[in-house]
Amino acid sequence: MTIPQAAYKVLEAIVGPDYISQDPIDCEAHTPGPNGFETDLGVATILKSPGCVIFPSTTEEVQKIVKTCNRYKVPFIPISTQWWSGRGAAKVEDALMIDLKRMDQCDIDDKHMFAVVGSGLIYSQLQEEAMKRGLYTTIPGGGSQVGVVANHILYGSSPLNYRTCIANRRILGVEWVLPDGEILRLGSCALDKDDYLWGEGIGPDLRGMIRGFSPGWMGSMGIVTKMSVKLVPFQPDKPMPVGISPDTAVELPLKRINWYNFILPSKDALVKAMYEIANAEIGAGLTKVPLFWRAIAKANNKEEFWELWDQESEETVAAMNVLRVLLIGFTSEKQLEYEERVLQDIIVKDLGGKQTRTKPTDESWVKNADSASMWMMCGGYTSLEFDFEAISHAVAKGVDCSKLKKGYTPPLMKAYGDQGWFQVGDYGHLALFEFLTYQDPDDEQKHKVDEWSVALSKMNIENRYYTAQLASHKPLFLTGPAYGPDYHKWMIRFKEEFDPDALSNPPGPADTDLFIQEAEWMQKVKDWPAPKIEANKNPKFE
Amino acid sequence: MPEEYVKFDLTDMKNFEYDMKRCVRCKGCKWVDHIYMPGATYSTRCPSEKRYLFDSFSAWGRLRLALSLLNGRIEFNDRFVEAIYKCQLCGACDAGCKRNLDLEIGSALESLRIKCVADGFGPMPEHKAIAEKIEKEHNVFGGPADNRDKWAKGIQTDDKAEFVYFVGCYGSYKMQGIPKATANILKATGQSFKIMGSDEYCCGYPLYSTGQIEKAKKAAQHNIDTIAKSGAKTVITACAECYKTLKVDYPKMFNKSTSDMGYQVIHLVEFVADQMEKGTIKFKNNIDMRVTYHDACNLARMSEPWVYWEGKRKLYGITEPTAPRRKGTHGVYHQPRNILKAIPGIDYVDMIRIRENAWCCGAGGGVAEAFPEFAQWSAEERLEEVDEVGAAALITACPRCKDNFSKAINASGDNIKVMDIAEMINEAIK
Amino acid sequence: MDLKNELQKIVGAGNVLDSPEILEEYSTDNGIYPPGMPTVVVKAGKSEDVAKVINLANKNSTPVIPVSSGVHFQGCTIPYQGGIVLDLSNLNKILEIDPPNRRVRIEPGVTWGQITDELAKENIRVISPLLPHADRSVITDYLEREAPVVPKYEFAEPLMTYEIVWPNGEVFRTGSASVPGYPDSPAKGTNPAGPGLDFYRLPQGAQGTMGVINWANLKLEYLPKINKIFFMPFEDINAAIEPIYKIPRVHIGQEFFLLNHVDLALILAKQWPDDYDRLSDILPSWTLILTISGPPRRPEERIEYEKEALFDLKKQYFQDMPILEALPGVPGGGRELIHMLRKPWPKEEVYWKNRLSGACQSLFFIARPEDAPSFYEKVVDEAPKYGYPLEDLGVYLQPIEQSRVCHLEFNMFYDPDDPIEREKIRIMNRELAQDLLDMGAIFTRPYGDLADMVYEKATSYTTALKRVKKMFDPNNIMNPGRLCF
C-alpha cells in the first residue's frame, strides 16, 4: 500500500523528509471516517487509505508534486481541511494525499475589498482578519472551520448571502495547478500573476470550470492553490467575543447590528414576509429555521435535546413559523432604525406577525457557524438535499421532501413533518433550501439512508426541482442526463480534456456511481442506465 | 445502534469506542473557538498537530488510530508510539470538541496510552527512567526522598492544621522559591498548614499521563492514605499538575468521583482569590510591570471535578443515566487574573489565546522528558504570543510551565521574565 | 443541396438573405474596423432554428456569426471569414415577467428600448449600463459584461440563467434552469450556479464565440419612484478618488459614476450643437453624479438617512467637494438626468456617443479607482501625439460593486466617413491600449486589435481557453477569428 518508491524519492526531495510519509500509521490517520460528512453513509465503503501523505508549502511545490504524479502515474487527492470527509478520501489504492494545510496565506487588500487566501485558511480566520478592517465574508453552513478556497469552489451558503450572493460568485483571481501540473491563472492574475484584483475573463470566463460536479471537483480537477475572494463592507463596530466554551458568542453592537425573531401566523405569511422584506431591500439575513435547531440551541447535551424534541408533534412543528431577520446599519445607526420600522410595517402591521425576544449576541453566522453540532443529536448527519432557487421553489420542495422522508423514517430521525430550512439569498432573487438528514450511523436499517438519497434524486427529476447536487450523494448517471440536459457529458468531457489519465482524485465525478455499482443493497433501487465505473479511470458516457 | 453498557473506566479502550467512532473531523480540537478566533495567526490550540502536521499527531487522527487498533486494522509500532507520546495531553482538544459534541477525547487518548503500556509498547524510555526514580525516591528527579522538605527549613507548619500543603516535586527539589512564597502567603493570611514531608510522594502525574497506570495508582494510593491519615480536609497546592492529578486523576484511576475522595483540592490562586474577597490579604507593594498570565492546562480547562459514570448507551448515543461531561467551562480562569489585576502597578494584559483556548507551555504529558525539543518549540510559540501583547513578564501557576518557559528563554536569549504567581503574590504582599 | 437551400428549409426562404445590399449591411458596424462580407444572412424566427442552423454549419464547417442587436461598436459581428450571419433580432419576445421573484426571461433580440417600458408598467427594471442604445440587445450588453450604472449591489451580475446552443449544436440550459421541463417547473431559473460546472460565465465576454443564447433570465429590481440627484463638480480628477471609494461602500445611493465635461455635455445637450458647445465650456472638468432613491417602503425616510450619511462623509473625508442638487448654468440644473438614467438613450436622437463626430471608439478596462488619474494622465500625454484634440476626449468612470474596482472608459470621437481619421483612431486605440496594458490596465474583454496583445500577456489562460473552446466548438465555426480563437 505505497506509491512507487522512485516517485517517493522525488517527492521527498521536493518537500523535504519532514513533510512526507508513507508510514502505514500516518496513512491510516489520514483516512477519514468512520464518521463525518458523508462518511457515515454507504459511500464510505469505497474509501481507501492513502499510500502516502505529503505537505507542500508553495504552489511551485504543488506543481512539482503533480508533475511527479503524472510522470509515475500516481493518483493524487488534494485536501485542505478534509471537512467533506467522504470526498476527502481516496477511492483507489496507493494514492498520494496532498494535504494543503501549510498553505494558509491571507493577504487582504482593504481598499479593494478582497483577500488572497491559500487553501489551508479557514473561514473564522478570514472573518476575523476581514472584520479588523471593517469588511466581512459570509460564514457558511459548512462551518467556520471549513477551508475558504474549497468552500468558495463549492457554494458557500449562509444566511448572510442575503445581500452578498453565494460565495462561489465571489471568486476573483485563481491560481490553479491543473491535473497535468500546468498552472492556470484566472482573472486579472492571468495578466499579471501577482494582481488578484479581478475575476473576469480574459474574454470567456473560465471560473465556472472550478465548480466541478456541484460541491466543487472535490480534488478531481487538480488543485487550487490560491484564490482571491471578495470581501464586502461591514459596519464599523466590531462584534466582540464573550463567554466561556461552550457558551461563547459575539456581542453585537446593537445600534448597528441585531437579530430579530418574529412568529408569523402561517407559513404563507412567513413566505410573503420574505418576499416583501427582500423587495424593500432591507436586511442582511433572512432565514426560517427548523424547529429542532431551537432544541439544539437550548440543549446542553443530546439527552436534553431528545427530552425537548420528544415533546414536539406534527402540530407544534407546523405552527412554528419563526422568521429570523438580521439587520445591519451599514450606512449609519439611522439605517438600522429605518429598517426596523419597515420590518414592523411588513411583519406586524401587514402580516399580523409578532416579535419575540432575541439575544443581544450572535452564536452563529456573524463569526461562527457550528456545523459540528449537527452530529450532536443522532451521531450521523448529512445534508442530502440542498439548492438555491426561488423562494417559492424552496417552499414547494420542502413539502415534497417532507412527504418522501416519512417512508425512510426510521432510520431517519423523526422530524414531525418539518419542511426544511430555507433562507433568502441575493436580495430575494433566490433562497437556499436545505433538507437535513439525521440518523444513527450504527442503525441496522442505515442502508435506507442511501436509498433515501437516490429517492430524493428521483423526486427532483420527476417534480422538476432544482438540486445543487449533481453528483455529490447523487449518481451522476441518474442526474446528469436529466439536468441541462446531459450535464454529465460536459463533466466527463472536461475531465477527459484536462485529466485523461484520471490521476486527480478518480473516479470523480462518478464516486457515488461507483458506490452504487459496488453496494449490493443499492441494486434494488438502481433502475437507470449507467456504464461500468472503474475506480481508476474516467467515466465514459458513450 | 445496539444498546451497550459502558463506563468511564480508562483501562479498557472499548469504553471510548463510541467517542472514537463519532469524531467527525470538525477539528474543534485544532482550532481556537471560532468565536474567539484571533485571525490568521495564533489560530490553533494543539501543539502536536501544528508541530508535526500529520493527522497521526492530531486528536482526530489518534482517535482513528485507536479505533483501527481496536478493530485490528493496525498494530502498535514505533511510529504509532511516537505519535501517541508526542502530545502534551493538554486537554485543548477535549475542551474544543465539547464546544459542539459530547465526545470524551481526553479520556480516549489517556486510555490509548494505558493500552500502549499494557501491551508493552509504551511508555518512552525517558518515562520509564522517571518511573524508576519515582519508585526509588518518590520524586521525578531521583533526589533523596528525605530532602523533600528541605525547602521548609525554618518555616512554621502546624500538624493540626486543616490544610495540608502538597508541594510537588518541582517545588520541593528544583524551584524552592515557589513553596517558600506559598508558605509566606499562607502565613500572611493567618492560614495554618502542614506538609507531608518525605511522606509526600510524587503525585504520579508523570506516571499516569504516560499510561503507567499501575505505578501511578501506587503513588496515588500512598498519597491518598497519607492525606487521610493527616486528618486534613483540604489539600492546597501551588502546582497545577499536582492539583489536577489529586483532584481529577486520582478518582479517575480508582473509578471514583472527585467528591468521593474525602478531601478537597484547592490551588493557591483559589485560596488567595477567596482571601481577597474576605479582605484578609493586602497587596501593598507596587509592581510596575506589564504582565500576562499563562493558563496552565491542568489548572484551567482540565481541572473540573471528575465524575465517574457507568450506564447504557442507546440509540443515537443517548446515555442513561445522562453521562456527565467536563467541558472546561469551570476551570480556574478568573482567580489568577483577578489577583494580578489587583496588584498595584501591574498593567495586566491577556494573551491572544486564553482560558480554554490557551496554548500549552509544551511540557505536559511526558513531552518535556521524552521530546525536549518539541516542548521547547511549544514554549517558544507561547512566548511569541507574550511578545505580541507586549508583556514584560509571563506569570504562571505551575512550576512545570515556569520551568519549560525558562528553558526556552535561556535558549533563545529572550528577555521575558517568567514568574510563578506565588512569587508575584509574595512580592506584592511584602 | 447547397447551404442556402438547407438554410431555407430551416427558417423559410424569406429569412435567408444574400442580396449584395443586405450582405453589405451586415459586413460592417459602427466602429473602426474594416468590413468583412458574410456569405449569407439568416434571420431566426424561433429559437429552435438556432440549433438547426448551427448543426448545419458544423456539417459544412461554415462560420456562424450571431447578431442580436441593431447596433454594434466593437467589430465583433463583422464576418471576416464569411459564413452565416445568424440574425436574432426577430427573437424578441419577453417570455416571462415574474415580479415576485424579480426576474424577467427574454429572447436575445429584446432591446433596451423594448424592455424598459414594459417593465416600468410593473414598477420594476433591469439595471442598465450607462444610457445604452435603445436598439441594443439587453442580453448582449450583459453577455459582454457592460458595467451596470448602479454600483450599490454587492455583486454586479444581472444575468442569471439561459438556454444556449453550444457551438457543437447541443442545446443546454444553465444553472437552475437546467431542471427537466423548464420553464414548466417549480424552478424559476434564478440561480446561475451549478448543478455541476458553472456555465453562465463561459459565454460572457466571448463575443459570440461560445454559442448562441436562446433566452436568458435577468434580475429585476424595483423602479424607484422618489429620487434625488447630486452633482459633485471639481477640476482635478484626483479629488474624485475619496468620494468614489467612500460613498458606495456605506450603501449610499443608486446610480453613481464620474464623467468628464465632454461626456456629460454630450449627454445633457438638448439642442445640438449649441447646447453642447455651451455646456462643454461651462461644465466643470469632472462631475460625480449620484442618485439617492427611495425603495417601495418609506422612501422618503430612506432618502433622508442616506443623504445625511452622505454629508457626514463629506465632512469627514472630502470637505472641499461641493455636493449640489443642481448643476449651475445647466437648464433644469441637469436634474432630468435622473430620468434619463432609467431609460435607454432616446431612439429618435443620435446616440450620445455619436453626437460629436458621428462615431466613437471607446477604450475601456477594469482598474483600481485610485489608479484612474495615472491612466488619465497617460492618455492626456499620448493623445496629442496622434493629433487627437484633448478637448474632445470623453472620460467615464463607473464604480463597480461598491467601488472594489471601476470600469474606466476613454471615448474618442471621430468621423466614420473619413477613412484617414478612422485609421488614426484605430492606431491610437491600439497603441494607447498597449501603454495602458503595460501600466496594469485589466482588459477583460479585448475587442479587435486588443485581443492579440492581451492574450499574448496571458499565455496560460490562452492555452486553457483554446482547449475549452475546442471541446465546445470542435470545428471552430462560431465567430472564428475573434479573441484567441
UniProtKB/TrEMBL annotation, chain A:
This is FAD binding domain protein. Pfam families: FAD_binding_4. SUPFAM superfamilies: FAD-binding/transporter-associated domain-like. GO terms for biological process: lactate catabolic process. Signal peptide: none annotated. Keywords: FAD, Flavoprotein. It comes from the Bacteria. It comes from uncultured Desulfobacterium sp. Residues 46-234 form the FAD-binding PCMH-type domain. The keyword Flavoprotein applies. GO terms for molecular function: D-lactate dehydrogenase (cytochrome) activity; D-lactate dehydrogenase (NAD+) activity; FAD binding.
Automatic annotation (TrEMBL), chain B:
InterPro entries: 4Fe4S_Fe-S-bd, Cys_rich_dom, HdrC_iron-sulfur_subunit. Residues 20-100 form the 4Fe-4S ferredoxin-type domain. It comes from the Bacteria. GO terms for molecular function: 4 iron, 4 sulfur cluster binding; metal ion binding; oxidoreductase activity. Residues 164-247, 333-403 form the Cysteine-rich domain. Signal peptide: none annotated. Keywords: 4Fe-4S, Iron, Iron-sulfur, Metal-binding, Oxidoreductase. Pfam families: CCG, Fer4_8. GO terms for cellular component: plasma membrane. PANTHER family: IRON-SULFUR-BINDING OXIDOREDUCTASE FADF-RELATED (PTHR43255:SF1), IRON-SULFUR-BINDING OXIDOREDUCTASE FADF-RELATED-RELATED (PTHR43255). This is CoB--CoM heterodisulfide reductase iron-sulfur subunit D family protein. The lineage of its organism: Bacteria, Pseudomonadati, Thermodesulfobacteriota, Desulfobacteria, Desulfobacterales.
From TrEMBL, chain C:
It holds the Pfam family FAD-oxidase_C. The keyword Isomerase does not apply. This is FAD binding domain protein. One of its GO terms (molecular function) is FAD binding. Keywords: FAD, Flavoprotein, Oxidoreductase. It comes from uncultured Desulfobacterium sp. InterPro entries: FAD-bd_oxidored_4_C, FAD-bd_PCMH, FAD-bd_PCMH-like_sf, FAD-bd_PCMH_sub1, FAD-bd_PCMH_sub2, FAD-linked_Oxase-like_C, Oxid_FAD_bind_N, Vanillyl_alc_oxidase_C-sub2. Residues 33-223 form the FAD-binding PCMH-type domain. Coiled coil: none annotated. PANTHER family: D-LACTATE DEHYDROGENASE. Its cofactor is FAD.
